[in-house]
Design a protein that fits this description.
The protein has 127 residues and is mainly α. It is built from 6 helices and 3 strands, in the order αβααββααα. Helix 1 packs across helix 2 and helix 2 crosses helix 3.
Amino acid sequence: MSGDGGGERRPHGELVADVLAVLWQSGRPMTARQVNAALGQGLARTTTATILTRLHEKGTLRRVPAVRGFAYEPVEDAAGLVAGRMRRELESEPRRDLVLRRFVSALSDDDEETLRRLLLEAEGGSE
């Protein structure tokens, strides 16, 4: 049984986002079978298991022993995951000052004010 159902194939990134959303919403470790059931998309369990394994190998998920195999849980929440991607992108650029300048200049007024407040809080040592 392929779980394909002959339907249109979804982009891999969407599946990964859906898997992470299920795990974040759950708040507890889940097996591939549990994630697959929560997705309710008729995917093959092996497809879900492969996504979970790859996310574990990338450090996005941690796994814990379960009755059969492993259960998976996110290492970070959604905001932490995005912040990590932003940090990696910044670290890969030799002209970090230019990247930050362009980033800040593209912020909305509200986002710029939030960033200013957060930087002031960080200077003051409060979190």
